[in-house]
Amino acid sequence: MVICVILDSNFLMSPAQFNIDIFEEMEKTLNQRIEAVIPSPVYDELKQVSIGRRVKQARQAKQALKLAKKAKIVQVDIEPYESVDDLIVRLAIDWNCLVATNDSELRKKLKKKKASVMYLRQKSRLMVDGATFKQNF
Questions:
Q1: pLDDT (0 to 100) of residue 9
Q2: What is the DSSP letter of 70?
Q3: 63 vs 21 pLDDT, higher one
Q4: For the domain 2-129, what is the CATH superfamily, name and number?
Q5: Residue 137 pLDDT
Q6: 130: which of 84, 90, 112, 116 fits an S-S bond (Cβ 3.0–4.6 Å)?
Q7: How far apart are CA 128 and CA 116, in angstroms?
Q8: 7 contacts: CB under 8 Å, gap ≥ 6
Q9: What is the pLDDT of residue 131?
Q10: What is the DSSP string of 83-107?
Q11: Is residue 122 scored above 70 in pLDDT?
């Protein structure tokens, strides 16, 4: 069985900050193979940060773009009224997928919608809140 996991930009940037292999840790935490999915607006967000003026964030985003090659980048349209976070929430509900993010505001939005969230805890291990995600994508 394969579990669908939508990756947020800050989650993809965490390996540069905390020296953790997120793909290996996700599979270990879930005890399943995963299908890592990156919505195209998240990928575009990473590209923008990678050319930004903030040197540390740009470096982390460049590393995240390299990691993104291990995931499936899915072309999705963002609605005019939506933020990237709103899009992620919508996709998590529509696709019934787990979301991997360290963004506390996004985690709150997902929790309100009863979506499952994976996040980094204590800079070294992954945790999952909720367990209502699809086993196949």
A1: 92
A2: G
A3: 63
A4: 5'-nuclease (3.40.50.1010)
A5: 42
A6: 116
A7: 7
A8: 36, 37, 38, 42, 68, 71, 100, 101
A9: 61
A10: -HHHHHHHHHHHHT-EEE---HHHH
A11: no
